[in-house]
Structures are given as structure tokens and as C-alpha cells.
Amino acid sequence: MGMFAVFGNPIEHSKSPLIHQMFAEQTGVSLEYQKILSPIDSFEQNVVNFFSQGGKGANITLPFKERAYQLVSELTDRAQICGAVNTIMKLDDHRLLGDNTDGMGLLLDLQRLEFIHSNSKILIIGAGGATRGALLPLLEYGCHITLTNRTFSKVERLVEQFSGIGHIQGREICQIASAEFDLIINATSSGVNGEIPEISPDIFSSEVACYDMFYQNTLTPFLSFAGEHKTKIVADGLGMLVGQAAFAFKLWHGILPEIAPVLSILQRELRI
Ligand code: ATR
């Protein structure tokens, strides 16, 4: 039986073991998947020990994704461009391969929701790690992306880095004030503190879809704000969480599981 784990700090509330067990049942794979609370100082040693004791794959969550990027000896193209690793696989020659499945997880969820098509006009608010992880798959899919952020210099850096891949432009947050987008994605961490990014409510309409990468057991602050300004089509990042796990599962086991049945179970548990 393959041994897998998620490393983080804190890790108590991680849903990854549950998600991977459900994928395993769905696909007939047998696996053991545990949560590992890694002390901040000894993350690298803990990961190395796990793999030398027979571990086959690991997920990496906050605050270790950049350190995992440094630790592995091979990187997929998408992990390379993100500068962060959320999935590690032990290769046959014992070296560790680092991948980043966050952006593919987001795209899979947006496709499931029918929020996206190949030339969607998308506004992404936020220019941190979450956005960096999302840009490659969305640009490769053909979307036209407008990027904005409270701190505009971070937008300029990302636009410069990703402009060779697809259609991406940066705009100051105060210059965006009309309902010109098909999809608006909140990729800021503002929801963690119960806040919303300062953006004009005129970007919302009854036709636009709004996605918040953040999730909680009630509607997120950003999605509440969108709903107060005519938006009817909303979804939070729980589906992205299941989607990134699905692509990690595919890397390890060669099968992409269905996310919808797993997501319904998590939604029921979270919202009771
Ligand atoms: P993550 O990995 O979640 O993306 P991060 O790299 O620290 O975390 O980036 C956080 C993002 O959320 C940034 O775009 C940040 O904006 P700044 O670059 O201006 O700091 C954004 N953010 C966090 N709190 C916010 C708030 N209250 N209003 C607007 N943007 C916020």
C-alpha cells in the first residue's frame, strides 16, 4: 500500500486525507494518507525522512510551499514558473519531483462550474502566491486576463513574467469601474481577516460569475459583497482545493478522479 502525507503548520484542519481517501475509494486505489505537523525549523528533514521511510508522495501546504520548491531535485514546468511546490512525488531513481497543481485545480473547478471558456475575459484581484499559481493554466487555456492589486508593483512584475505566455494586462485597481468581465476571481487573502479588497462595486452585474479562492463555512466576504451588487453566479475555493488534490492524485496514481461527488460531501460537512 502506498504511503502519502500532507505537511503543514498548522495542519489540524487539513481536508487532504479525507479527499484522498474518497478519491482512492472512487478509483479502486489503495493508499494510506496522513497529516504531518512539521515544526518550522525541521521541514526539510521531516520530508526527507518521510521519503526515506517509504513515502511515495506528499502534499505541501502553508507555510512550506516555497521551501519545498527549494528542496526537490526536479520541477515540473508549472512548479518552476510558480516558484512554489504543493505536490512531491518520489521518482523511480529516488529523486524528488516537485509539482504545483493549484492552478490546474482552479481551472478544473471553473470548468466544472461552467464559469470559463477559452476566451473568457477574466479580472484577477490579487498578485501574491495564489495568483502566481493560477496564471499559467488560465493563460494556456486562452483566457484574456486583467490583473489588479492593492500594490500595483506586484502586478507589473507578474505581467512582465507571464506576458510571453498569453493575453495578460495589468491595471490599477482604481481604474477598474465597469462590468466588462465574464469572470472575476478574488485571489487576495483579504477574506482570512473578514475583509474585501477595495474595488468599485460597478464591476459586478447579474451576468458576471464571481469566484473566491478563499472558502469558509458561510458565504465569503467578497462573494457577499458581489451578491449585494447584483451578482448571482458565485462559487468559493472549496472546489479548487478538491481540484488541486485531484491533479496530485493523477500525478501519483495516473488517474484523474471526479471532483463533483467529493465536493458535495465536503460542502455538506462544512455547511451543516
Ligand atoms: P497568497 O499566497 O494567499 O496569495 P500573499 O502572497 O501574501 O498570499 O498575497 C496576498 C495577496 O492578497 C496580495 O495580493 C495582497 O495585496 P498586497 O500585495 O497589496 O499586499 C492581497 N491582500 C491581502 N489582504 C488584502 C486586503 N485587505 N485588501 C486588498 N488586498 C489584500
General description of the model:
- The model has no long low-confidence stretch (mean pLDDT 97).
- The protein is 39% helix and 21% strand.
- Strand 7, helix 6 and strand 8 form a beta-alpha-beta unit.
- It has 272 residues and is of the alpha/beta class.
- It has ten helices and twelve strands.
- Helix 5 packs across helix 6.
- It is globular.
- The strands form two sheets. Strands 2-1-3-5-6-4 form a six-stranded mixed sheet, with helices on both faces. A six-stranded parallel sheet has the order 9-8-7-10-11-12, sandwiched between helices.
- It has helices at 16-27, 43-52, 65-71, 77-82, 102-112, 129-141, 152-162, 221-228, 238-253, 260-271, and strands at residues 2-8, 31-37, 55-60, 74-75, 87-90, 96-99, 121-125, 144-148, 167-170, 183-186, 209-212, 233-236.
- 2'-monophosphoadenosine-5'-diphosphate is lined by residues 126-130, 149-151, 154, 188-190, 195, 197.
- Residues 126-130, 149-151, 154, 188-190, 195, 197 line the site of 2'-monophosphoadenosine-5'-diphosphate.
Care to give the gist of this entry?
The chain has helices at 16-27, 43-52, 65-71, 77-82, 102-112, 129-141, 152-162, 221-228, 238-253, 260-271; strands spanning 2-8, 31-37, 55-60, 74-75, 87-90, 96-99, 121-125, 144-148, 167-170, 183-186, 209-212, 233-236. The protein has 272 residues and is of the alpha/beta class. The strands form 2 sheets. Strands 2-1-3-5-6-4 form a 6-stranded mixed β-sheet, with helices on both faces. A 6-stranded parallel β-sheet has the order 9-8-7-10-11-12, sandwiched between helices.
